[in-house]
Amino acid sequence: HHSPPHNKFHKMTTTSSSLQLTVSSPPKKPQPIPWTHQETLNLIRAYQEKWYSLKRGPLRGSQWEEVAVVVAARCGYDYNHPSKTALQCRHKMEKLRQRHRSEKHRLTATSSAASSRSWQYFRLMDDLERGPLPISVRALPHNEYENNNYSDGERGKNQSVRSRSIHNILHQKPSVARQRDEIDDDEEEEEEEEAMATELTAELKSFAERIVGLENMKMEMMKETERFRLEMENKRIRMIIESQCRIIDSIGRVFGSS
To answer: Which of 58, 110, 179, 231 could form an SS bridge with 189, CB 3.0 to 4.6 Å?
Structure first.
């Protein structure tokens, strides 16, 4: 006995649809690795050093790369360990600054010191923004900012890895004194980026206008050259025709006189 044709068609349709679902399903994006407590501490300190060395000016792309390298080195990461990129460091600092502003606003509204204790990075970020003393002069409380979630074994392991890293080479104490005036760095960076974008747009527009001008000049020169060539060709043809006419007239006069 043979199976009915409609059953075969149903099986083929089901198989093709399942294959289509398997092929069309997009791969899942890997979840970003969250920041650890130690990475956040090293980021704040590395950014503080770089920011003060620039006299609290905005960091550029290559300088964010340097911050990312310092963070990875001070965490004891080697090349096989996934470390944070320059873009991730920049975004993390933006989030830390936003959180600090909100915590500071809440502290002002409540007039209570408990708000500064509710966020473990408040004092570090507050010192970063206000800048009372260089970080090399002021000793940070060790117990307050070290990662309490680490076990003794993990902390010992990190210290042994850190000793083999390039921590001692890249670790530099800041030598620039902190300034007293408060600057909204986020707005300053946005204004600088807008100015750079405007300047780049103007340069591109000017370059395009120069290119168009050169092309127009080239076309005019080609037209002028072609017009001159045609005029010379017409003159040459007229001279040949006039010469032939003179020869014919001369021959006619000679034979006519005889």
So the answer is: 58
